[in-house]
Design goal:
6-stranded antiparallel beta sheet; alpha/beta; single chain; 8-stranded mixed beta sheet; about 675 residues
Length: about 675
Amino acid sequence: MTAATDTEFDYVVVGSGAGGGPVAANLAEAGHRVLLLEAGLDHEDDDYRVPAFHGRATEHPDLGWPFYVRHFDDREQQERDEKYVPEHDGILYPRSGTLGGCTAHNAMITMYPHDADWNGIADTTGDPSWRADRMRQWFERLESCGYKDRPRVLPRHPWLARLFAVFPLVSEKYVNRSRHGFDGWLRTSLADPELAIGDGQLRRLLKHAAARSLIDFLGRPLTLVEGLTSAVDPNDWRVRTCPEGLWQIPLAVRDGHRTGTRERIRDVAARHPDRLVVRTGALVTRVLFDEDPAAGTEPVARGVEYLRQPHAYRADPHADPGPDGERVQVRVRREVILSGGAFNTPQLLLLSGIGPEAELQRHGIPCRVHLPGVGGNLQDRYEVGVATTMRANFTLLKGLTFKPPDAGEQGDPGYVQWTRGKGVYTTNGALLGVVRRSSPELESPDLFLFGLPATFTGYYPGFSRHLDQQSNVFTWAVLKAHTVNRAGTVRLRSTDPRDTPEIRFRYFEEGDDTAQRDIDAVVTGIEAARSIMNCLDDEVETELVPGPDVVTRDELRSFVRDQAWGHHASCTAPMGRRSDPGAVLDSRFRVHGTKGLRVVDASVFPRIPGFFIVTAIYMAAEKASAAILADARLPGSAPSRTDLRHILDRVPRPRSSSRSTVVQETR
């Protein structure tokens, strides 16, 4: 089929998630004409808007793309997982196919990464701009903190510094020691602690969690009120040494509604419709290059080709079984930025002839650039649930259905409260988290336990319908961060860009963690969750998962091996020095061996950062935007719009919900 051609853009960004959305918005604000391509559509309803409905959003047929992945190559081991789906030969791995990418269905947890994450990238790449003290600026730029008072920033006089050193508490309201951001595009908030305090059973449970935590440096147990008010704010710059104990859980929620890259994109597109053009229903099939193989020059990315076809990708529940739609070629004056995520970015690189030569030859794809690291180094968290049946129902959940009202109905009491910006539905269900190290010698804590009054034991078809079926079950979700294993791969299933890739994580003994540190850490996390519940003998009926018969560490290891899951896939196009055979990008997000091609998404990290990856991606996107704009101003480059306009555009402004420039492609 002959492809139509569009040549009106400076940049094309592929993917509207946590990486691509902010980059496209920032480049447009700076004066460039940007085309943002999203394969999904722009459906929105209460499953998207209501934070407590994030499970429903995950399985929403108009928002989600259900991928199926293998945790193990060994089929016998894989089939031990209760979540295994034989007809798909894998485990459900929810992804999002809609404007905003996975920020449209995630749990909205917005937690700052650890210093060691950024310093590790600086060491790997040799680029000091990635060091932790320099990376904080990008968080300050993107955050609009809604749970701290804006400090009054005073002039920097030596005598003031001495005064504040003597009276640090006095200076708190004048100087931004927490280094929160207050003028960014991402609103952060905290759940109202009164929600937990009002439920007697939940109050006692959290009291024991507080008592067990190590946050109390005075050497005495914390009361519940002390625990709720003294819990560590993980986004405070002063806690970057990562204390263990009870932590608050900041959420990307504004006025009780989910907020993320979708709102950022719409805001900029409404203010600058001539600069930011958004096309949904547009599946990119390959990157277009200008090159002269005989001259031996590096291929230059000059655009992309995409299918003008809603539901083209076969992960889409509404996938179109018919032939390909119209092919459209977009030519750009500057660069192509890939932001498809840890699965789709390596797939697109491979389809474009960039990756391991043997893999490309296997599919008959000419190799433009031999980069062995493309699609390798796949990493994730490990998670398990410790679910317990309580003797009484949680009064917090009384009358709640955790679903939108039917047409013409008012909705349950929680929904009515949500319409006023209050109540349980303004949260993701997790009020507090417990942070600890699985081993004392670790540089950063690696275990995050967050409790929710629901049953959650992983992802399987229909999991979201089971979250709220019992109002007397409490689950501690145990998350293992900073995983050692990095042996997963993303490989092409075929040369058809509409097919999903083959994704294999190679958990535990199949991976490269020969000492089995990851599985032992998860077992330690289970024991920590059990120690909290053991304080509630009079209120606990029984443990559902792992169950009372799973007692020894060896039995717990088997449970973890069989039932663990993850949902932070990353690191499949990692940054690194050009001499590193596993590196795909340089420290400025440029694809090695090419020109005019960058990657900005979860795949860029050499090692998986922090506890929850979205904040790290947001920060990387802000840093990438600055790098792209700086390179656009280099001598010999095409002239860019004035920086003054960019500065003026960053002045705080009212939100806009306009969707006038978001174009959904139709056949």
